Amino acid sequence: MNQNPVNGTSNADLRKAYKRQSQGRDIWRRFCKNKMAVAALIVLSIIVLAACTADLFWDYEQDACALNISEKLQKPSREHILGTDELGRDILCRLVYGARVSLEVGIGAATFALVIGAILGSIGGYYGGRVDSIIMRVTDVLLAIPGLLLGIAIVSAFKPTVFYMALAFGISYVSKFTRIIRSAILSIRDQEYVEAARAIGAKDHVIILRHILLNCMAPILVQYALCIGTRILSVSTLSFIGLGIQAPTPDWGSMLAGARAYIRGNTYLVMGPGLALLLTISSFNIIGDGIRDALDPRLKK
Amino acid sequence: MSNTTENRDILLEVRNLKKYFKRSDGYLHAVDDVSFTLERGKTLGIVGESGCGKSTTGRAILRLTEPTSGEVLFEGIDVTKLNKEEMRKMRTEMQIIFQDPFASLDPRQTVSQAIEEPLRLNGIIKDKKERFARVMELMETVGLAERLVNTYPHELDGGRRQRIGIARALAMNPKFIICDEPVSALDVSIQAQILNLMKKIQRDMGLTYIFVTHDLSVINHFADEIAVMYLGRMVEKAPTEELFNNPLHPYTKALLSAIPVPSIHRKRERITLQGEVGSPINPKPQCRFAGRCPNATEACFASEPPLVEVSKDHFVACHLCK
Amino acid sequence: MEEKKITSENEEMLNIKNLVVHYETDEALVKAINGIDLVIKHGKAHGLVGETGAGKTTTALSILNLVPDPPGRIVSGEITLDGEKLIAELPLTNEEREKLEAEGKLPPCAPAKTEREFEHIRGDKVAMIFQDPMTALNPVMTVGDQIAESIRLHQGLDRAAAAERAKEMLELVGIPGIRANEYPHQFSGGMKQRVIISMALACNPRLLIADEPTTALDVTIQAQVLDLMRELRDKFDMALLMITHDLGIIAEMCDEVSVMYAGRIVEHGTLEDIFDNTSHPYTQGLFNSIPNIEDRKSDLKPIRGLMPDPANLPAGCAFCPRCDYATERCAVEKPEKIWLSDTHCVECHLYQQGDTAKKL
After folding, report:
1. Contact with chain A for residue B132, Cβ under 8 A
2. Which residues in B142-174 are b (16+ Cβ under 10 Å) and which e?
């Protein structure tokens, strides 16, 4: 191979000479063109950053959980930027710690659903036949159970901790991921380039991972982002009706529930958690759309 | 068939190859009892219209679709009997170039990744630098400019994409390539470039081709022998010159006369076939062309004609050509 | 069916003058058509040959004012159909015109008809057959209803009469009338293309635009469809604009030919002009690249290189980078249209005003 004009050092030079933006950077560039998506990403980053660094500003036990009746229902001030709630706790502090819970459950549930769904969907879609039928029937059964009810059932059977809630809300989403991934795979499985990969001797797992899953990333990622959003909403719903995260652990849903009684006189109480939910969930949705538009190189032209 | 008696260097022999697809209303006979032999270094053109089973024949030989029955002897080894792993190894010797250069490349692979993949997956060249050198060599062979190494398929035109497909097929130094309509998606001026390239590669590397196409005019430059298929059956097979000068099967005659000639002087007698291609699902035991054949007799509807050698190397399956 | 009158004494069915069409996207300005002239006489068949991206389909869409807008825009030019202006240049004073010319800009134009009038023209006066018969029919309507719909729309017949006429049309293209009640998926590719042809002819158009009508069909079916189109054209005496990449089809179907390359008509003439006195190097190259079934010995001589990117056309002749005869002049100066005879014109620097055709 050494008589080749391009070898050794010139080889490396050549690679460099025609080096271009990697595909990741290409996608990032396209994502950045979408102003809404960038705004949503910034909002979300702030929320995540705040949730991660909360301990630097507050003491969890002292500020977020402990009662302080003397300071209850204070209007926003320099000391308490968003005011205090009916038990005298700083709302901003509780919001930030609440974000932790919401994000943990949301991301945990979505990731769980994605992983299980990807495995089931890939197997069913690629191999088809009886395996596929069984998998699809199982997901049908899962689909028939309302997500929230399943959540309530699991949480009351076990404990309403972040782990069980993520599991509970993840399971109800598994069937959705399985179906999306299966149909994406079905549409790509018969593409000629998959056959071409088989013709050059690629093994099944290479084909599924490298050629099929990578090419249906767009719908999967979009669904993942949407899923996180809806799961956060579910957690809040569960907490709102008092079955989710238990007091005194701060959570947006239970904060809303607590603030409900004071909605006439102290509207600011519901504004905080309400806005936090709205911003977080819509950010995830907008980012999902942005990813979809950025991911497909075929739409580039 | 009797042509194995002579001293020929047979690379590929296909015996009674069948591929049936199960349908709700019966079995679709995509390829029905096709047999032929192919000498090393030669090109066999398989011609026919859509649905005649020509592409399925090619894919069944490579076992990209599993044949229903029959034998495919490649250098004496029956590839239909190989297990999955052995078949994977065998594919380094037998390659395919696909029809649609827009669908046969993974949109997320760059040119170099696409060409490199067969080398990497089969562990042919383990060293990264060497592998890249080989990619560059292949790109040069198929006439792709160096600057395209890191481009994606969607940035390239059909001709260049097809060159990538050819480079991929060549990467493992195969002996035999099935070309499945490699130029039918391309513009005429580009088509000629690709045809010339494939011809040159064949000469340089001593390759054996099966060239599947619907366009007789494309392979007349290429093929040593041409086989005509109709509804899963091989109806005529002859050396190229013989087939063009002395077509015997009525379908071959109609096919030849239907091609529009880019000339305003040589107007040929056209045989316009009536009707449409019949259904390949559970075909009746009769000549499959009988329904459209201008000369069909009762015998044609009574039994299916076998493929017989009427003159040296010229095979026809027709009750009327004896 | 009432016979439509030829509204003007002039014998031109279609006249396209200096048409320029651009596609404007965020990333690039794609110059699809760069000033073409095209005349089709009543009852004549005109072939438009060229490769992918030459601007053939855009030309056809411009006639019907169907260029997708955005990103497409008819920038300049005039289109006259049977004496009626469809696309007209905006009136300009001489001063304005000079000013535009000085700036290197083109005189602007606009549709001369309302969208309603265009709807009436499409299907009624001009009908179009698209390349892919598989996608051009509505899968959930019977073919009879689809044909009848366009008849009712354009000819104001009632439901029963339109259905009756739809059956007649199907029989005309060789499909038994009772199949009018079937759905598109029950037809084969060739049959579908027949249905589409019958739909196009249902309103007795004066001009039929056929955009690669047989490319998706098998050769024996293609032969049937071409025969049918020829027969019907004689019967209805309509003009035909046949768009194709296949010179063989042109030789069979057409009276005149225009060869398109990168949005220009580089050569135009009668069949004899183009086939026997091929004058433009590109046309010559096309002939050399076609595998000819009649002449098997000759090697293919492909045109080297690729079609230029229409977003980035060369400064001079667009064919210059691929041309074997190119000179320095070709690289910098766009060739003018040169008439080699009354019927034959070419855009190439190899010729000068007053030259006659020479075999390359």
Report:
1. yes
2. bbbeeebbbbbbbebbbbbbbbbbbbbbbbbeb
**Concatenated DSSP letters of C236-289:** HT-EEEEEES-HHHHHHH-SEEEEEETTEEEEEEEHHHHHHS--SHHHHHHHHH
Q: Is A203 on the interface with B (CB under 8 A)?
A: yes
Size of interface B-C (CB pairs under 8 A): 128
CA B114 to chain centre: 23
All residues of chain B having their beta carbon less than 8 Å from the beta carbon of residue C252 are: 260
B165 and B187: one domain?
A: no
Same domain for B179 and B273, yes or no, is yes
CATH, residue B42:
3.40.50.300
Regarding whether B121 and B206 lie in a shared domain, the answer is no
Q: Where are the domains of chain A?
A: 30-68+76-299
> What residue of C is the nearest CA neighbor of B160?
C306
Same domain for B122 and B259, yes or no, is: no
Give the structural domain span for B164: 108-173
Give me the phi and psi of B172, to 5 degrees please.
-95, 15
Interface contact C119, partner B, CB < 8 A: no
The shortest CB-CB distance from C248 to any of B50, B255, B262 is to B262
Q: What is the DSSP letter of A76?
A: S
Helical packing angle, C189-201 and C159-172, nearest 10° = 130
Assess if residue B44 is contained within a domain: yes
Residue C94's Cβ-count burial label (10 Å; 0-12, 13-18, 19+) is: exposed
Q: How far is Cα A148 from Cα A154, in angstroms, rounded to an integer? A: 10
Mean pLDDT by 10 residues, chain C (360 residues): 45 89 82 90 90 87 85 87 86 82 80 85 86 80 88 84 88 83 83 86 87 83 85 87 90 92 92 90 89 68 83 87 89 89 90 76
The sign of the dihedral angle between the CA atoms of A52, A57, A61, A66 is negative
Same domain, yes or no: B291 and B162? no
Clarify whether residues B220 and B312 are in a common domain.
yes
Task: Identify whether B100 is part of a domain.
Answer: no
* pTM, rounded to two decimals: 0.79
How many domains is chain B built from?
2
Q: Which residues of C touch B273 (CB under 8 A)?
A: 220, 223-224
Do residues B210 and B237 share a domain?
A: yes
| Chain C partners within 8 Å of B262 (Cβ) | 246-248, 250-251, 275, 287, 290, 292
Q: What residue type is assigned to position C14 of the chain? A: L
* Judgement on whether residues B198 and B306 belong to the same structural domain of the protein: yes
- Please provide the CATH number assigned to the domain covering A30-68+76-299: 1.10.3720.10
Distance of CA C81 to the CA centre of its chain: 14
> Could you list the pLDDT tens digit for every one of the 301 residues in chain A?
333 444 444 555 555 556 555 667 777 888 888 889 999 999 999 999 988 888 888 777 777 777 777 777 777 777 777 777 777 788 888 888 888 888 998 999 999 999 999 899 988 988 888 899 999 998 888 888 888 888 888 888 888 788 888 888 888 889 889 998 898 888 888 888 888 888 888 888 888 888 888 888 888 888 899 899 988 888 888 888 888 777 778 888 888 888 888 888 777 888 888 898 999 999 999 998 888 888 765 544 3
ipTM more than 0.90? no
